[in-house]
Amino acid sequence: MSLDQFSLDGRVAAINEEGGKAVTVEVDIANKASVEAMVAKTVQAFGGVDVLVNNAAVYHLRPWTEITEEEWDEVHGTNLKGYFLCARAAYPSMKERGNGRIINVASITFFGGFPDLLDYVASKAGIVGLTRAMAREVGVDKITVNTVAPGAFPTDAEKIHHDLEGHIRRVLESQALKRRGTAEDIGNLMTFLASDASSFITGQMIEIDGGWMMH
Asked: Which distant-in-sequence residues (6+ apart) come within 8 Å of 125 by Cβ?
């Protein structure tokens, strides 16, 4: 098979070849019908939903006075409304199974109030509030809800910065740990929050930023 191991299809193929099971679903998480179809396909393939990781996000890098109403709606539709729709669609299956993990991805920009990212920062602040309120409501169903707040990781999203080298330099100067974070760093934290080892942790925001903000 000539699939790139780092592509989505490549990762799915690798999981299936190793004896696991994975499927892909194309979904617009800002659309209720699309989200419900995604969950239905997941339940059909796996028998239910145990873990939901809300990770989709969009943003624009520009002064707040230049953000259009359409851009504001796009950012909040994906970054906040999308998380709400996905969690609500997955909730019945988790409740029925008597257990569940919802992990939302926010950002340390919530603490720093970074300039030229007002719509994005506002949406990430909303995720923190959503996490805390939702944790209160679903705790009775033995479902935990937590937020992961990453720092600056080397992904394609960084390409939006006009001075990428300067951005990376500033990141390393700000962090206590003088290395870039990796996908494995995020994966290890996600695995912990999805496991029984974290069953008494809910409503929390956990930073993973190499010691940048330290809240």
From this structure: 106, 110
Of 181, 189, 184, nearest to 205 by C-alpha is 189
Domain-wise residue ranges, the chain: 47-208
The helices-and-strands tally (H runs, E runs) of the chain is 8, 4
Return the structure tokens found at 114: 């970074």
pLDDT band at 211 (very low <50, low <70, confident <90, very high): confident
Q: Does 47-208 carry CATH code 3.40.50.720?
A: yes
Selection from 52, 150, 136 nearest residue 93 by Cα: 52
Question: What is the pTM (predicted TM-score) of this model?
Answer: 0.89
Residue positions annotated with a catalytic role: 120
Q: Tell me the three state secondary structure of residue 119.
A: helix
